[in-house]
Amino acid sequence: MSLAGLGHILLHFLVPLLIARVCARAHWRNALVWMLLAMLVDLDHLLATPLYDPDRCSITYHPLHLWPVWPLYGLLALWPRTRWLGVGLLVHMLLDASDCVRQFGLAELLARMFD
Ligand SMILES: [Zn+2]
């Protein structure tokens, strides 16, 4: 795995931690647990062959990562009981999208997303 790949995985832990500490001060541990549970969305990678491909953009490939599902994650973020799960899913999608931008550039990502 490349250094960029390791950095990407590290961000999946650090960004939720930062958001939890800043936005959910008194209940930051609970918020963090829910946001980390959002990483279970990567179980849709089990449907792919090969399971891991460093050159694949998950935002345009894996079913739970496709942009039409994102509004559902936004709705989860609006509901108080599911807020941190929804926020975690949205953060996850943004981090994965940023990795695709790093790999292919924004124009190519948008072309692939809406093709
Ligand atoms: Zn992902």
Report on this model:
With 115 residues, the chain is mainly α. It has one domain (3-113). It contains 5 helices and no strands. The chain has helices at 3-23, 28-37, 70-78, 83-104, 106-113. Helix 1 packs antiparallel against helix 2, helix 1 packs antiparallel against helix 4 (83-104) and helix 4 (83-104) crosses helix 5 (106-113). The longest helix has 22 residues, at 83-104. The N and C termini lie far apart (29 Å). The model has no long low-confidence stretch (mean pLDDT 93). The structure holds zinc ion (ZN). Zinc ion (ZN) binds next to helix 4.
How do the strands and helices of this protein lay out in sequence?
Elements: H1 3-23, H2 28-37, H3 70-78, H4 83-104, H5 106-113
Helix pairs in contact: 1-2, 1-4, 2-4, 3-4, 4-5
The structure holds zinc ion.
Overview in brief:
The protein has about 120 residues and is mostly helical. It contains five helices and no strands.
